[in-house]
Amino acid sequence: MPIRVAVIGAGSWGTTVAALASRNVPTVLWARRPELAAEVAQDHRNTTYLEGFDLPEDLAATSDLAEATSAADVLVMGVPSHGMRSTLRELASHVRPWVPVVSLAKGLEEGTHLRMTEVIAEELPGHPVGVLTGPNLAQEILSGHAAATVVAFSDDHIAHELQKVFAGELFRVYTNPDVVGCEIAGALKNVVAIASGMADGLGTGDNTRAAVITRGLAELSRLGLAMGGQLVTFAGLAGMGDLVATCVSRQSRNRYVGEQLGKGRTIDEIVAEMRMVAEGIKTSRVVVEVAAQYGVDMPIAQEIHGVIHQGHTAADAYRGLLRRSHVSEMHGMG
């Protein structure tokens, strides 16, 4: 029997991952709204999040959580970080034992500071857990452009089996045993992307943006190492690759948030007009708390936190960074 995949969450990335998997194995996409599930199943479209893109006819969809999960051999969690735990509790009784669970969410849980795989492990104990992450912009992948990603599991056999599930002719999937590093990189790059967008909004130029991206990579690497990640991960697809894509793409929600902040708009105004979640907004608070817990210096994250949560302006943030004392480029990396 072929592996059966259930993708929980019909946002732009969840839908895209479901479309990729459906070309290899039977796949069902769960949408909370019945009308969206019907549109995917009958019209092969998701006009709410992916206007103008056709989805594979073999991709099934449902709004019934039990129907989606009860027969799954692989469970893919495509809901935002703030909804992860509650959704897991809804579906827990329907998932068969030992089914691998793949997280697509790039964030940390507020309050607990847990990574999404840790949240999954608490709500679905006994299930192998990992992440799918990388420089993956949904619209580019559905348009047929080449892309690469990482599937990170501590169990190498599971990782290689999932490689076959998601890989396509133009979608290359690599394995990585460093779940912690891949997950931390995916969460923190959203905060750096807000900083990069702020540089665009302020009109500071490419030199400034390059410095923000590079120093942002140093920050997420420092925290990732402190939390148990491997340095090489942060130079790879889950680290530098995803960071660059999120910081420079016009499709990036987090970069957009930063750009609008740089133009003088408030965070409440920006969020009110967005249909999809920019994970970096909530993560910016959590990452500052986690950095303090581990004693890691993260000046860019601190300045972004100040803009989003303390009423500082984007110009204030950049002046704050420039006033910092000069240190070695390798500061905190050893």
CATH class of the largest domain: Alpha Beta
In the CATH hierarchy, what is the superfamily of the largest domain?
NAD(P)-binding Rossmann-like Domain
Shape descriptor: globular
Strand content: 5-15%
Distance between the termini: 49 Å
Please mark out the parts with pLDDT under 50 across 5 or more consecutive residues, or reply none. Answer: none
Describe the main β-sheet briefly: 8 strands, mixed
Alpha-beta content class: alpha/beta
> Going across the major beta sheet, what is the strand order?
3-2-1-4-5-6-7-8
The total tally of domains equals 2
Here the CATH topology of the largest domain equals Rossmann fold
- Proper CATH architecture of the largest domain: 3-Layer(aba) Sandwich
Total number of helical segments?
16
Helical residue percent?
Answer: 40-55%
Structure write-up:
With 334 residues, the chain is α/β, with parallel strands linked by helices. Strand 5, helix 5 and strand 6 (129-133) form a beta-alpha-beta unit. The mean pLDDT is 94. The chain has helices at residues 12-22, 34-43, 65-69, 81-91, 116-123, 138-142, 156-166, 179-202, 206-226, 231-234, 237-248, 253-262, 267-272, 279-294, 299-309, 314-322, and strands at 5-8, 27-30, 60-62, 74-77, 101-103, 129-133, 147-152, 171-176. It has two domains: 5-177, Rossmann fold, CATH 3.40.50.720; 180-322, N-(1-d-carboxylethyl)-l-norvaline Dehydrogenase, domain 2 (Orthogonal Bundle), CATH 1.10.1040.10. Helix 4 packs parallel to helix 5, helix 8 runs parallel beside helix 11 and helix 14 (279-294) packs across helix 15. It contains 16 helices and eight strands. The longest helix has 24 residues, at 179-202. It has an eight-stranded mixed beta sheet, with helices on both faces. It starts with a strand and ends in a 12-residue tail after the last helix.
